[in-house]
Amino acid sequence: MRLPLLAAVCCALLACAARPHCAAAAKARHFKWEISNMFWSPDCEEKVVIGINGQFPGPTIRARAGDTIHVELKNALHTEGVVIHWHGIRQIGTPWADGTAAISQCAINPEETFTYRFVVDKPGTYFYHGHYGMQRAAGLYGSLIVDVAEGEEEPFKYDGELNLLLSDWYHESIHTQMVALSSKPFRWIGEPQSLLINGRGQFNCSMAAAHTPGATQCAAVNRQCAPVVLPVQPNKTYRLRVASTTSLASLNLAIGNHKLTVVEADGNYVDPFAVDDIDIYSGDSYSVLLTTDQDPSSNYWVSVGVRGRQPKTAPALAVLNYRPNRASKLPALAPPATPAWDDYEHSKVFTYRIRARAGTPPPPATADRRIELLNTQNRMDGHTRWSINNVSMVLPATPYLGSLKLGLKSTLTAARPAETFSRGYDVRQPPANPNTTAGDNVYVLAHNTTVDVVLQNANALAHNVSEVHPWHLHGHDFWVLGYGEGAYRGDAADEARLNLRDPPLRNTAVIFPYGWTALRFVADNPGVWAFHCHIEPHLHMGMGVVFAEAVDRVGKVPKEAVSCGATASALMNGDHL
């Protein structure tokens, strides 16, 4: 395992060689974690969560660009495996550390220990979460913050920093949820009971009941669900890091009477712009600048509400506490109102304003390959599934990284996935043929080729239903070239909508109802990478694909990462990774 680690470190050092102080100051940061079930009260209702070292959310990792992270992880869950995905970290040279069960590694069995080693190659706001079953929805997540390398500065100034990790919370266990989603007939799990800010929320009551007709004022609560308080000094500028690890909900964040200036998205700098509120989809992360220029005798509400779905979950509230006011002093003004859940025009105006900051590498002018992915809801043997080009993804017992590295072709289906869909498909109607099939959805990409991906949204099984889908790519950032309404045709009108001048670099992008989103990336990171809807129920029901990229160029893979399924048998027979 020393050679892969050294190679990864070398990659990071080369990446920062042009930056003063970076290579000399890079450090190894060590963490020892134990993952277990525990009783907790995220929204004042005691349930079982998955925690790390007795904490929920898990510990925050803080590092500098170029540092190497070592996480020695013991699985103390009694009856199920576990993995951790480091969301937004590109894993250059360490694809086996990406933490995606059945794709980059085997699940870590109960009572076993696995060590993740990887380099955080660029600064930004990231997070980590479980990527096995629906463990993210059970609370297995935490923040990962990467500061600029020693001696460097951000391209914007601020006096202090605040961190918000947003999530949603169900009272039903993830096991009950998974059984419901896989049942025949299908049982929808409904909307989450609560929204959480840094793992805290309040169920069936409101801190702002005085401004909410019919609401019950929250009584004294225990510290596990006590309202989050963000202490600030007047007339200062704060960097507010915000990330969403929700299972289902798309969110909107606003702070009473305060403007927010967006400066970072998914670990990439953007051209700054000011807004009253931000939409944040599952898998997104942002940095916004907040100036405390309001009446210093008051505190102000931080409000997080549901977007894109008819809200049956109350907004989450935190308090922006202007010191020296007491933290317990409730704001006099009502919390900011969340825009109407189906006001997609509001969402699009925000999303379309996100442009790359000057100095961001531009995309290649043309692509070598275009893959069009039609997102549909279908049925398979009486079950409800999500499909891509009419194939619903099912993950194998043997991780793709190991099977492809060893050349075990039998682990893939013979049929290659489709790269387009019928131009006659009516995206505004339920599928004429609602039936789908299962497959691996593995696309093999040639090394260093430029790939365009067009995500096409469509009507679900029910009439007049098309949902928001935030798609996340592992192992890469991509340029978001543009968005469109209706069916993508690839004609001159669609091409005219693409932005090749200053498209933002992201790792997560939304497709709006009945619309399409065009992405471009360079296949320059050998490995096997998941690309999927970041909504937990949708991924569980098959909404994803896999990009296998120059696997022959991957260095030596640690045996413990992929020693399961057919790979384990091959290794026992003397094959070498």
UniProtKB/TrEMBL annotation:
It comes from the Eukaryota. Residues 37-147, 163-324, 429-550 form the Plastocyanin-like domain. Its cofactor is Cu cation. Residues 1-18 form the signal peptide. It catalyses: 4 L-ascorbate + O2 = 4 monodehydro-L-ascorbate radical + 2 H2O. GO terms for biological process: negative regulation of defense response to virus; response to hydrogen peroxide; response to virus. Its EC number is 1.10.3.3. GO terms for molecular function: copper ion binding; L-ascorbate oxidase activity. Pfam families: Cu-oxidase (PF00394), Cu-oxidase_2 (PF07731), Cu-oxidase_3 (PF07732). Keywords: Copper, Disulfide bond, Glycoprotein, Metal-binding, Oxidoreductase, Repeat, Secreted, Signal. It is found in: Secreted. GO terms for cellular component: extracellular region; plasmodesma. May be involved in a redox system involving ascorbic acid. Belongs to the multicopper oxidase family. Dimer. This is L-ascorbate oxidase. It comes from Panicum hallii var. hallii.
